[in-house]
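In the current project phase, work has continued on tokenised descriptions of protein folds. One protein thus recorded appears below exactly as we store it.

——
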Amino acid sequence: MNNKIHNGSEPVNEGVTKDTYKKSKMIVNDNKIPTNISIASLYNVSFHYGENVLKWKYLYQKWIALERELSKEALTFKKEARLLEDVIMKYNENLKRYYMYVDDMSYKMVEHGVY
């Protein structure tokens, strides 16, 4: 086995031997992979080709950066949501007191025969 680990500085398809074609297989770094694989629909990048390794690394780093950015925004939205929740709870307490007052007043009016 003479598999090489790709570190980004050397060409990706260095180990491809074009003279080892079979019907539907070719040898890349002593691994047989099909040659007639269609490109995946996700960002038009296939998992099966050596030259797409750098594309997948780039996409992965892009997704990680986006996730970090969204998590920072989520923290600010949590703070805003807590503030809104506090305001709504205070409003509900005041509303509850108002209705208790109105119910108490109507009860007193019924006691005195106003209704």
Observations:
- The CA atoms of residues 90 and 96 lie 10 Å apart.
- The helical segments are 53-111.
- Residues 54-111 form one domain.
- DSSP finds one helix and two strands in the chain.
